[in-house]
Design brief:
Helix content is about 40%, strand content about 20%. It is α/β, with parallel strands linked by helices. The chain has two domains: about 5-170, VC0802-like, CATH 3.30.2130.30; about 180-390, Rossmann fold. The strands form two sheets. Strands 1, 2, 3, 4, 5, 6, 7, 8 and 9 form a nine-stranded mixed sheet that branches. The chain has a six-stranded mixed sheet with strand order 14-13-10-11-12-15, sandwiched between helices. The structure holds adenosine-5'-triphosphate and magnesium ion (MG).
Length: about 400
């Protein structure tokens, strides 16, 4: 059983003077995450490395699962530690390590030692050579390959000796909290949870808004969105979800505007209300799951008309993705199975048979103007009756 994990992080290593800010954010996210699972954990930051030390009643699988949900982590290396001894002790240790971790291997390898403890009497290169030789003696079917080894065996000489060669992949990105926050338009579909996940991956904290239309959309459809928010929260941290009652606005649009423009006008009201809550939550952008051309309301012309009603930037991380590429990510982050549950959403009910695919902004604005006098109060009521809760 391992007791120590070395956490490898990518981009946050190259942030110059800001580096410690990112390391602190990462350590904080690790601490927060591990708080909720069994065991006692110590997070240690040391010269460009973060270590997680596990104790008490901890479970390996649960711990690794928690760590693979933390943005900023590129790799998780299970570490064996040994007492600091002379080179003959080290040679024995390394052979024991190989027998445990790579038994009867015939792969190529390379030893790479880092002498952090400068008092150690041998230099890194000398340690590499000694240990390479010890491994070749003990495992004759292995060979050295310094350029492209199958197994990179890394050692750190510190107060003890740390040895690792396995890397469990983390999600990459940047620790949540190292950037600002953004408002995700979260529907029950496949795309928007993925879009939220992608922006959260860049260190952005996520708030969310869902438009529901009872009785046309069911409680189960709403629960599905809550469940999706929880799935994204497993990576992004707690998500504040605003559930907006959108029925009366949709009915007013349905009664007043040309039916082929329904979706575009409805999307414009969603964006306006999303921006209201974004400003309230001090978010710096709105996120949607749109991708060019996926449906009529996502043509480039349609995107102009929905963008036109907000002044915050709209992040559409999936804009250039095919559906199959989005599905692949949805499966990886475990939102897919929930997203495909067959509960209707509010767009599918009020959708026209032949929606405009190339809406013209002036025409849409003219149609929308007919709502004047009734829509203001409906929007105000929708905002006032919005329910907000935290999904985690
Ligand atoms: P998704 O799979 O995310 O539902 P979609 O392909 O169904 O997307 P649309 O219904 O056109 O596409 O919606 C485009 C985007 O608008 C969604 O990705 C989401 O960000 C937002 N959106 C749509 N419906 C809702 C809703 N009911 N509540 C909140 N946001 C919504
Ligand atoms: Mg949808």
């Amino acid at each position: 059983m391992y007791h120590t994990y070395l956490i490898k992080y990518g981009e946050i290593g190259i942030k110059g003077n800001n580096r410690h800010v990112f390391e602190d954010a990462l350590a904080k996210q690790i601490r927060l995450k591990l708080q909720h699972i069994r065991g006692e954990f110590q997070i240690r930051k040391e010269r460009g490395r973060v270590y997680v030390e596990c104790g008490g009643d901890w479970d390996e699988e649960e711990t690794i699962d928690a760590l693979t949900h933390i943005f900023g982590i590129v790799g998780i290396c299970p570490v064996h530690t040994y007492e600091l001894g002379d080179i003959s002790a080290l040679r024995k240790d390394i052979v024991e390590y190989m027998n445990k971790e790579h038994p009867s291997s015939s792969q190529s390898f390379k030893v790479k030692a880092r002498r952090v403890n400068k008092e150690y009497y041998l230099q890194s290169m000398e340690i590499d050579a000694e240990l390479g030789e010890a491994i070749l003696e003990a495992c004759p079917s292995m060979r050295v390959d310094v350029h492209n080894p199958d197994i990179l065996l890394e050692l750190e000489i510190r107060d003890r000796i740390y040895v690792y060669s396995k890397v469990i992949r983390g999600p990459g990105g940047m620790p949540v909290g190292s950037n600002g926050s953004a408002m995700l338009c979260l529907s029950g579909g496949i795309d928007s949870p993925v879009a939220g996940w992608m922006i959260a991956k860049r260190g952005v904290k996520i708030d969310a808004v869902y438009f529901h239309a009872p009785p046309y959309t069911s409680e189960r459809a709403k629960q599905k969105v809550v469940d999706l928010a929880k799935k994204v929260a497993a990576y992004a941290g707690p998500i504040r979800l605003h559930v907006v009652n959108f029925t009366d606005i949709q009915l007013a649009i349905y009664d007043t505007c040309p039916h082929e423009e329904l979706t575009v006008i409805m999307r414009r009201y969603m964006m306006r209300i999303a921006e209201h809550f974004a400003n309230k939550d001090q978010d710096l952008a709105i996120i949607t799951g749109e991708s060019i051309g996926q449906v009529a309301s996502q043509t480039m012309q349609s995107l102009i008309t929905t963008n036109a009603v907000v002044s915050l930037p709209v992040y559409r991380p999936l804009v250039g993705f095919d559906k199959s590429e989005i599905v692949e990510i949805a499966k990886k982050i475990d939102t897919y199975e929930t997203s495909i549950l067959p509960y209707e959403d509010c767009c599918t009910i009020f959708v026209a048979r032949h929606p405009v695919t190339k809406p013209v902004l002036e025409i849409i604005e003219r149609s929308e103007a007919k709502l004047k006098g009734q829509i203001e109060e409906l929007v105000e009521t929708a905002i006032r009756t919005t329910e907000t809760f935290t999904c985690k």
